[in-house]
TrEMBL record:
Transmembrane regions: none
Active site: C134 (glycyl thioester intermediate)
Record-given protein name: HECT-type E3 ubiquitin transferase
Gene that specifies this protein: Herc4
GO biological processes: protein polyubiquitination
GO MF entries: ligase activity; ubiquitin protein ligase activity
Gene3D superfamilies in alphabetical order: Hect, E3 ligase catalytic domain, Hect, E3 ligase catalytic domains
Keywords recorded for this protein, A-Z: Ligase, Transferase, Ubl conjugation pathway
Length: 142
């Protein structure tokens, strides 16, 4: 039985998909030649492809730009108070809402272009929080 299971698993995960994998690998290497990847250490390559996974959220707060607000505005202070109380998973969900991804690419958090803008709507209590993911702008009603 053990030999049968080993042979079956080998067939399903290796032999049965070998042609498709070779075709994929040939196309991938045409677009991303291995000689370009050899210059990276494994950790650097992972960072390049995956991005940062741990963040200094206080640094994000320091680097944010404000339009229609200043950092001492009560709305902003409440926002950051609530944000810093969130669990890590929720903070990453916010990052995904803001930028379209729960990760920040290999360039550091100091360079992350995040801004908070006042949408200047007539009745802020009837307006939802919104984000422009292309520009990483959070529209935060008062």
């Amino acid at each position: 039985r053990k030999e049968f299971v080993e042979l079956y698993v080998n067939y399903v995960f290796s032999e049965s998909i070998q042609k498709q994998f070779e075709d994929f690998m040939q196309g991938f290497l045409r677009g991303c030649p291995t000689k370009n990847w050899k210059m990276f250490l494994p950790g650097e390559l992972q960072l390049l492809l995956q991005g940062h996974t741990k963040f200094d959220w206080h640094l994000l707060e320091k680097k944010v730009k404000y339009t229609g607000y200043n950092k001492l505005d009560p709305t902003i202070r409440k926002f950051w108070t609530v944000f810093h109380k969130l669990p890590e998973e929720r903070k990453k969900m916010f990052l995904a809402f803001l930028s379209g991804s729960d990760q920040i690419s290999a360039y550091k958090l100091e360079c992350f272009p995040f801004s908070i803008e006042d949408p200047q709507v007539e009745n802020p209590d009837e307006t939802y929080l919104a984000a422009n993911t292309c520009s990483c702008i959070l529209f935060l009603p008062r």
